[in-house]
């Protein structure tokens, strides 16, 4: 057991020195939320031939809580200082999950110290909405749910052995130990579109390991990554998920050993591979260019606000259907004029609607003008209107997340996501939006939210956390469409149980009034 002081923080590490002359050193970097103990499944299988260095990242395991601001420079600098203190000047980096991403960053900064890289289920980031959604899920659980919930959710993603109570408990305990702000910053850091673009220029021998059942760094994603790189080996480990060295330690150790002894795989530079690599790199580049393009940010929850890149556009949205056009095109970036007329003002006769639309589109296009764009932000053709921005709309994101939560089967994960949704929904929903399309969107959100709030409230009650049900019930009353008595009954039961007579009388009175109100009057 050893500690190293770096940048005012304490780093825990273990160094297993191999007595064999000229033995290479493997530096093992664990993933976000875990710790170095998980490498112990393969250390005995490798230490006879290699020196092995394990360490706990800042805020993980036995290392100190770390720094308020996590950056690649900080993390790579800590590892560099540790290697220098041990007089290690040439190593092979073996990284898992976020640790694989960190290994790439270290090789980019300190290339002369790195002989090769072994990347296990890398914390990959391609311009794929599903990957972005997965990493957002981790951040949401870390911010709003108990760390035990996060650990249990990650155990199911990381190992095919998650039904093993001992292993699951180890993973949960690792996540309970991690410093939450550090974990969140690490995930958000890796969410930036840097990987695998960064390691296209490394020119280091790389071995990619993907678990056959890995739900994130899938074999297909691993194969796509492999196809882009020249000096890369690639293996799909059978009957394994992300933690391939835990699920299949012998298999993983054999491949790590074989690659470390002969890191340059053959037949990677023939004509077919070269052409395939060029095509895949070009497709990835196009994806990144789209990902990094001009953005429009639209806020519809609590208030209406529009940002073009970094410039807020304040006026003009409440006239000539500008707000309605923007929300519709956010969900349908390419639309015909007929579709716009039918969705936004179906009650207007078609000739008049088409004439009005010309005026509305002229006003709308002026609002979107910016000097930052290389091409027009909006194309208005004879028949088709197209928005050329990458859209970041909180309503769209919220609706997608509502659908994800509604479909989630794991109750603990579902509740953690419910807490995140609750924190994001405040104030009015889509203020100032009254066109048919906006109203249909609002109704869809309200229907999903009513089901989620009632489920979350019942889950709190069943798990002995009745007081935590109250904010969900109040939000459901504000934004849901269900029979109000469903909420009143639950609130009354909660206040009866906790003995709050003042609130009990209040909600009994509200229920009585709602039952005595005639339907016609209710609509008014």
UniProtKB/TrEMBL annotation:
Q: Which residues form the AB hydrolase-1 domain?
A: 26-249
Which InterPro entries does the UniProt record give? AB_hydrolase_1 (IPR000073), AB_hydrolase_fold (IPR029058), AB_hydrolase_sf (IPR050266), Sig_transdc_resp-reg_C-effctor (IPR016032), WH-like_DNA-bd_sf (IPR036388)
The protein's matches in Pfam families, at most eight in alphabetical order, are given as:
Abhydrolase_6
Q: Which residues form the signal peptide?
A: none
Q: Name one GO molecular function term.
A: hydrolase activity
Q: Which domain of life is it from?
A: Bacteria
Q: What SUPFAM superfamilies does the annotation carry?
A: alpha/beta-Hydrolases, C-terminal effector domain of the bipartite response regulators
Sorted keywords for this record are: Hydrolase, Transcription, Transcription regulation
Matching PANTHER family, A to Z? MONOACYLGLYCEROL LIPASE
Q: What is this protein called?
A: Alpha/beta fold hydrolase
Q: Which organism is it from?
A: Paenibacillus oleatilyticus
**What high-level taxonomic lineage is stated for the organism?**
Bacteria, Bacillati, Bacillota, Bacilli, Bacillales
């Amino acid at each position: 057991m050893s500690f190293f002081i770096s940048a005012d923080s304490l780093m825990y590490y273990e160094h297993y020195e191999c007595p064999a002359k000229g033995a290479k050193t493997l530096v093992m970097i664990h993933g976000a939320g875990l710790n170095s103990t998980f490498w112990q499944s393969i250390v005995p299988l490798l230490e006879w031939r290699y020196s092995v260095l394990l360490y706990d990242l800042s805020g993980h395991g036995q290392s100190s809580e770390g720094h308020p601001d996590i950056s690649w420079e900080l993390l790579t600098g800590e590892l560099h200082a540790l290697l220098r203190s041990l007089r290690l000047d040439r190593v092979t980096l073996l990284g898992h999950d976020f640790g694989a991403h960190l290994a790439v960053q270290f090789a980019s900064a300190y290339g002369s110290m790195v002989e090769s890289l072994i990347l296990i289920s890398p914390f990959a980031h391609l311009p794929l909405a599903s990957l972005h959604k997965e990493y957002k899920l981790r951040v949401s659980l870390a911010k709003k749910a108990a760390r035990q919930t996060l650990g249990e959710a990650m155990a199911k993603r990381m190992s095919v052995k998650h039904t093993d109570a001992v292993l699951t408990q180890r993973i949960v305990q690792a996540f309970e130990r991690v410093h939450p702000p550090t974990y969140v910053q690490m995930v958000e850091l890796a969410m930036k579109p840097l990987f695998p673009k960064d390691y296209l220029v490394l020119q280091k021998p790389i071995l990619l390991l993907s678990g056959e059942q890995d739900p994130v760094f899938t074999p297909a994603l691993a194969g796509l990554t492999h196809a882009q790189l020249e000096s890369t080996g690639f293996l799909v480990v059978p009957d394994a998920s992300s933690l391939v060295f835990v699920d299949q330690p012998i298999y993983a150790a054999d491949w790590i050993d074989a690659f470390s002894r002969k890191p340059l795989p053959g037949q990677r530079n023939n004509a077919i591979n070269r052409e395939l690599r060029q095509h895949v790199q070009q497709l990835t580049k196009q994806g990144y260019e789209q990902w990094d393009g001009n953005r429009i940010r639209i806020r519809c929850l609590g208030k209406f606000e529009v940002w073009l890149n970094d410039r807020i556009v304040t006026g003009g949205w409440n006239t000539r259907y500008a707000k309605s056009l923007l929300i519709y095109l956010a969900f349908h970036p390419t639309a015909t004029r007929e579709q716009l007329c039918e969705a936004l003002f179906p009650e207007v006769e078609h000739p008049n609607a088409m004439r009005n639309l010309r005026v509305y589109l002229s006003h709308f296009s002026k609002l979107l003008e910016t000097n930052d764009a290389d091409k027009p932000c909006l194309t208005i053709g004879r028949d088709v209107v197209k928005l050329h921005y990458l859209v970041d709309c909180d309503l769209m994101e919220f609706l997608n997340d509502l659908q994800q939560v509604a479909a989630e089967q794991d109750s603990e994960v579902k509740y953690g996501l419910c807490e995140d949704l609750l924190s994001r929904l405040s104030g009015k929903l889509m203020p100032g939006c009254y066109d048919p399309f906006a109203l249909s969107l609002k109704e869809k959100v309200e229907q999903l939210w009513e089901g989620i709030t009632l489920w979350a409230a019942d889950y709190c009650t069943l798990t002995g956390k009745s007081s935590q049900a109250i904010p969900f019930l109040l939000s459901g009353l504000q934004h849901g469409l269900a029979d109000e008595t469903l909420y009143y009954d639950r609130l009354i039961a909660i206040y009866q149980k906790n003995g709050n007579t003042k609130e009990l009388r209040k909600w009994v009175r509200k229920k009585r009034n709602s039952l005595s109100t005639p339907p016609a009057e209710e609509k008014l």
